[in-house]
Design brief:
RNase_Y/CdgJ, TIM Barrel, 2 domains, 8-stranded mixed beta barrel, Hypothetical protein af1432, 415 residues, alpha/beta, 13% strand
């Protein structure tokens, strides 16, 4: 069986306020755990990886008022990819090499209408960056790019006509920090405070078939939510990341999002499309494949969903048993404890209890699935009897679920 997960690495550098409290973090792409700086060959891919994996990796430790700055290259900025992120937490950082084209400015205006905040990177007074100033709330100035403090003071003075916070980058000693504070800077970043740290996590590699299907759906003129949901449900990785994202992004505060259908509905078309594009781009050419375990996980979900549609198992909803079956393998895939994983999924208590092996009926159902996977006929007979199931009908449903899963996951190979 091939490996089914890959490591993901994100640099995180804290940003401090005038009281030396952590105001937020800048998220930085890292190609490996040992990397101390970004090795970026494709800015769009780097940002997509930060959006799809970095946000989920670091936001669990984020305090309510803290913010995340994420670099956006020109192409992603113009494509409105910012909608993949929650505006309450994330600030879109406009890089210094972004041109103020009509498309870019239109995208910024649209995102601003939806309460997104912007920062401008490495500003040294460039005339070509001035069109961005009316839209940004933070201007970043790299102290080491400027030869003396008088130039810094002049830039700060010129920025006073805009309602912006000014962030000093590469602050390396207390003397500089205090001088910048007096000058009017109110946010600070640099080795004097903290070097960037690399956060390591694991993500499941999404399978290539699902990506092909989703790319086709996202590019279609007739956007079909039902087909999008159907495709997402064939992939354990995207399903897990979607539900974790929907429950951590402050999208629907106070309410548990416990099904894929609900997560898709809550996100809405615009945010869903941009998030999926980031996920797909970040997973292109993964180093390890997930097809084998993904197939098994999806088939478990499909079989239990079919059983629930025909039987009343303590009022389990079919879509809930689909999630239960699919996520029954997520501990193997991610090599994390179920307790850790459940912190991010906000499932129904009944399903959480089942995944923690505390629900007798659900655990019998999972044992039944495992017996079919081994084709242990004696155990199948014993469990169908315990669950009051017709064995011939149950055998037929398992065969149907297997064929359905196979057909669904492989159908796009014909296109």
């Amino acid at each position: 069986m091939s490996s089914t997960f890959e490591s993901t690495f994100i640099g995180r550098q804290p940003i401090f306020d005038t009281h030396e409290n952590i105001w937020g973090y800048e998220l930085l792409y890292r190609s490996s755990g040992g990397a101390v700086c970004a090795d970026i060959k494709d800015g769009n891919l780097a940002t997509a990886k930060v959006i799809s994996d970095g946000f989920l990796l670091v936001c669990e430790e984020l305090k309510k008022s803290q913010k995340l700055l994420i670099n956006f290259p020109e192409e992603l900025l113009a494509s409105e990819a910012g909608f993949a992120l929650p505006p309450e937490t994330c600030i879109i950082e406009i890089l210094e090499n972004v041109s103020a084209t009509e498309n870019v400015l239109k995208s910024i205006q649209l995102l601003a209408k939806h309460k997104f905040t912007f920062a401008l990177d490495d500003f040294t007074g460039q005339v070509e960056l001035e069109p961005f100033l009316p839209y940004v709330k933070i201007v970043k100035i790299d102290i080491l790019l400027l030869s003396d403090m008088s130039k810094v003071a002049k830039i700060v003075q010129n920025l006073k006509k805009y309602s912006v916070d000014i962030l000093a980058e590469k602050v390396e000693d207390r003397e500089t920090y205090l001088a910048l504070q007096k000058m009017g800077f109110n946010l600070f970043q640099g080795y004097f405070f903290s070097r960037p740290e690399t956060i390591t996590g694991r993500k499941i590699s999404s399978n290539s078939i699902t990506k092909i299907n989703l790319l086709k759906e996202l590019g279609s003129d007739s956007f079909d939510i039902a087909r999008i949901v159907s495709n997402i449900k064939t992939d354990t990785s995207i399903s897990y990341r979607l539900m974790k994202y929907a429950n951590m992004a402050g999208i629907n505060p106070g309410n548990r999002i416990n099904s894929i259908e609900r997560a898709v509905t809550i996100l809405g078309k615009r945010q869903l499309v941009q998030w999926l594009r980031a996920i797909i781009l970040s997973d292109l050419n993964p180093s390890m494949k997930a097809e084998e375990l993904s197939f098994m996980a999806v088939n478990r979900g499909c079989f239990l969903e079919m059983l629930a549609e025909e039987n009343n198992f303590l009022k389990f909803k079919p879509e809930s048993l689909f999630v239960y079956g699919m996520f029954s393998l997520v501990t193997v895939i991610l090599n994390l404890s179920m307790e850790t994983i459940l912190k991010y999924l906000a499932l129904e208590e009944q399903i959480e209890s089942a995944l923690l092996e505390n629900n007798h009926t659900a655990n019998l159902l999972l044992d039944l699935v495992k017996s079919y996977e081994r084709w242990d006929s004696d155990k199948i007979k014993e469990l169908t009897l315990q669950l009051s199931l017709d064995i011939e009908r149950t055998n037929l449903l398992y065969k149907k679920s297997f064929k359905k899963t196979h057909r669904t996951m492989l159908s796009s190979q014909k296109h």
